[in-house]
Design brief:
Shape: elongated
Radius of gyration: 23 Å
Largest sheet: 10 strands, mixed
Number of domains: 2
Number of strands: 24
Structural class: mainly beta
Strand content: 25-35%
Distance between the termini: 30 Å
Oligomer: single chain
Number of helices: 7
Length: 457
C-alpha cells in the first residue's frame, strides 16, 4: 500500500471545549470539515486524519510578557504533515496490566546541525512531554487523546467520521530547519550544594559535610522551617525539589552554578522530594525522591512502538491477550521487595551533587529568551507549562495586544501549546554523544515551570 502524506490538524482543547473533541458530537464535524476543505482546497484527499487531546489549559505565549498568565480556557491548533506524526493505540486493560500507562503527548524538534564544533543551543534535539487532564467527569474517559480517520463523501461533499481510536502516545517531530528553546523553573535554594555519600534507588541516605557525612534530611530540616517562617508560608503547603547534578554532567562548569535554568539544559535533573525526614534507626534522615524523569519510561515495559496514523488503523493490537484466571499471587504482586529495590535506577548515585529548592511565585521569574533577528518568517512558538496552582482559574486579559475578535476571546497566531496541572517532561539529545543520544532528561512538576520552543521553517 502506497502511503500518502497529508496535513493533519492536531487540536488541544481545555475541558470547557471537550465537546469539540467528542466523536459522538456534531461539533466535531462542524469544525473539521471547513478546516480540512481550507487546507486541501485544491484537491480533497479521500482519507484524512485528525488528532485531538483534552489538556488542563491552553498555554499562552510568555516571551517578553512576564505578567501574562500561564494558561487559559480555549483551543490550540497545530497543522503538521502526517509523516511527522507517530501514534500508538491504547491497549485494553487486563489482569496483568491493571495500571495502564497514562497517555502522553510529545513534541520534538530534530537536531539541526551535525557540526561538533558548534556548541550552541541549536545543536540538540528538544522533546517536551505533556500530561493530559483527567476527563472522567467530562466524557467518561480517564484521559482524552484520540486519532480520527475521515472519509470524503461525494454525495454530501464533505468528510464523514469513519473510525477513531483512543491513543496512548502521540509523538510529533516537527520538521523545523532551526529551533531555539528556553526553560523556566521558578525555584529558590534553601540548602547548600552537597555531594551524595550514600544512596539506593530513589532513596538518599547521606550527604557530604566539612567534617563527616550527615543524614540526607538534616540540613533541610534545619533550613526549611526558617525559610517558611521568614516568608509566612503555611508549612503544609511547602513542597521541596532536589536539583541533581550527575558526576559527569556535560558543560556543568561552563555556566554559573546559580543559573538553575541553564544547569537543567546542561543535563541536571529536577526531582520532587516525596517523603522523608525524621525517623530513627536505619530510617533516620532518609529522603525519597520521585524517580520519574521521562514519560516515555512508562511505555517501555509495554513495548509500545508508535507507528503512523494510517498504520494504527489497520494494525491489530499485539497485546490483546485473554486474562489468565490461574495467575499466581506472586505474578500479581511482582518480584520481591529486595529485587524491586535492586532493579531501581539510581536517582542520585554516590558522587553526584545535590541541592534542595522550594518553589517561588512564577510571576517574579522573567523569560529571557533571545530570538534571532532579521528573520523573513515568523517562528512557530510552542509553549508547554505546569499550572501555577491547582484550582486557580487563569484567563487572558482582554486588553492583550494580540488580535481579538471579541472582548472575550484572544487569538495568538503562530502559537501552539498546552498546560498540565501535574507535570511536563523535557529532554535534549544529540546523536553524537551518548549511545541513546540523551543529554538531559527531567520531569518538571514545579508550578509555573514552562518550556518554550521557537521553530523556523
Amino acid at each position: 500500500m502506497t502511503r500518502t502524506h497529508s496535513t493533519v490538524p492536531v487540536l488541544f482543547a481545555s475541558p470547557e471545549f471537550a465537546s469539540w473533541t467528542d466523536p459522538s458530537s456534531s461539533l466535531l464535524a462542524e469544525w473539521v470539515n471547513p478546516l480540512l476543505k481550507s487546507i486541501h482546497h485544491r484537491e480533497l484527499p479521500s482519507v484524512v486524519y485528525t488528532v485531538v487531546a483534552v489538556v488542563d489549559k491552553i498555554s499562552t505565549l510568555q516571551s517578553n510578557r512576564p505578567r501574562v498568565p500561564l494558561g487559559a480556557a480555549g483551543l490550540s491548533l497545530l497543522l503538521v504533515d502526517s509523516s511527522a506524526i507517530a501514534v500508538s493505540a491504547s491497549q485494553p486493560a487486563h489482569v496483568r496490566s491493571s495500571s495502564p500507562a497514562e497517555p502522553a503527548f510529545f513534541f520534538s524538534t530534530p537536531r539541526t546541525s551535525d557540526s561538533a564544533e558548534n556548541e550552541d543551543d541549536n545543536q540538540y534535539a528538544r522533546e517536551v512531554g505533556l500530561r493530559l487532564t483527567n476527563t472522567i467527569f467530562v466524557n467518561g474517559k480517564d484521559r482524552t487523546l484520540l486519532g480520527l480517520r475521515w472519509i470524503y463523501d461525494a454525495a454530501s461533499k464533505g468528510y464523514v467520521l469513519d473510525n477513531w481510536k483512543d491513543l496512548s502516545i502521540c509523538d510529533i517531530r516537527y520538521p523545523a530547519s532551526e529551533a531555539r528553546s528556553s526553560i523556566t523553573v521558578p525555584l529558590r535554594p534553601v540548602t547548600q550544594r552537597r555531594s551524595v555519600v550514600s544512596s539506593m534507588g530513589n532513596i538518599l541516605r547521606q550527604l557530604s559535610s566539612k567534617s563527616s557525612p550527615i543524614p540526607a534530611s538534616s540540613e533541610l530540616e534545619k533550613e526549611l522551617p526558617r525559610y517558611v517562617s521568614e516568608l509566612g508560608i503555611p508549612h503544609q503547603r511547602v513542597a521541596v525539589w532536589a536539583l541533581v547534578e550527575p558526576l559527569n554532567a556535560l558543560l556543568s562548569e561552563k555556566y554559573g552554578r546559580n543559573d538553575l535554568n541553564q544547569s537543567i539544559l546542561n543535563g541536571n535533573r529536577i526531582h520532587r522530594v516525596v517523603s522523608g525526614g525524621g525517623g530513627w534507626g536505619k530510617k533516620q534522615g532518609l529522603l525519597s525522591l520521585d524517580p520519574e524523569v521521562s514519560f516515555w519510561d512508562q511505555f517501555t515495559s509495554s513495548q509500545q512502538n508508535p507507528v503512523s496514523l494510517d498504520q494504527t488503523f489497520v494494525t491489530q493490537s499485539p497485546h490483546s491477550v485473554e486474562p489468565d484466571d490461574n495467575l499466581d499471587i506472586s505474578e500479581l504482586l511482582g518480584q520481591g521487595l529486595e529485587e524491586d529495590i535492586a532493579s531501581l535506577s539510581h536517582v542520585a548515585p554516590v558522587g553526584d551533587n545535590i541541592q534542595f529548592f522550594v518553589a517561588t511565585e512564577p510571576e517574579v521569574v522573567e523569560n529571557n529568551t533571545e530570538l534571532p533577528e532579521d528573520r523573513n518568517n515568523s517562528p512557530l512558538s510552542c509553549s508547554f507549562a505546569v499550572g501555577a496552582s491547582v484550582g486557580t482559574e487563569l484567563t487572558i486579559p482582554s486588553s492583550s495586544s494580540q488580535d481579538t475578535s471579541s472582548d472575550d476571546m484572544v487569538v495568538i497566531p503562530n502559537h501552539f501549546g498546552g498546560l498540565s496541572e501535574t507535570a511536563i517532561s523535557y529532554s535534549t539529545k544529540s546523536s553524537g554523544l551518548s549511545p541513546n543520544g540523551r543529554v538531559c532528561r527531567t520531569k518538571l512538576s514545579v508550578p509555573g515551570s514552562r518550556v518554550e520552543i521557537f521553530c523556523y521553517e
